[in-house]
Amino acid sequence: MRPAIVLLGAAGQVGRELGRALLPLGEVVPLTRAEVDLSDPSRVLARLEHVRPAIVVNAAAYTAVDRAEQEPALAEAVNGELPALLAGESQRLGFKLVHYSTDYVFDGALHGNPRPLREDDPTGPASVYGRSKLTGESAALIAPLSPVSLLR
Q1: Domain CATH code at residue 41
Q2: Which residue, 5, 37, 89, 133, has most beta carbons within 10 Å?
């Protein structure tokens, strides 16, 4: 039997491409906003407990960068709290978490730099969106004993 791979954010730009790329690796279980409210931890957990995936790929995000300034609680719920929840539950449910982040976590001044950004560049997000994504990254990485990979 092929391992189950839950793909959060499957209908988004990154999620659609990932869905195709992940097919050879296992049984992809796509989850979209239409199927589960990603700002509601109980619904997300219920789906994960039902599927019992080997891997959860979190490509979901509140991506309306400008609108996040007016809806910071929603941006924080999806970009900050969801990754923390996933990392915290990964050991209990036995899955590896692969979490997608963004270059918005970096200091805006670095974006004009002629060299590519590096993962060890200092963070310093200048927007609600960037701060919410950094919150999610940080929470996922400090979750005790959670197998997490972070992609920026």
Answers
A1: 3.40.50.720
A2: 133
Active-site entry in 62, 100, 104, 129: 129
129 is catalytic: yes
Write the pLDDT tens digit of every residue in 23-47.
Answer: 999 999 999 888 888 888 889 999 9
- pTM comes to 0.90
Structural domain of 121: 4-151
Residue type, 51: V
pLDDT one-digit tens code per residue, 70-100: 999 999 999 999 999 999 999 889 999 999 9
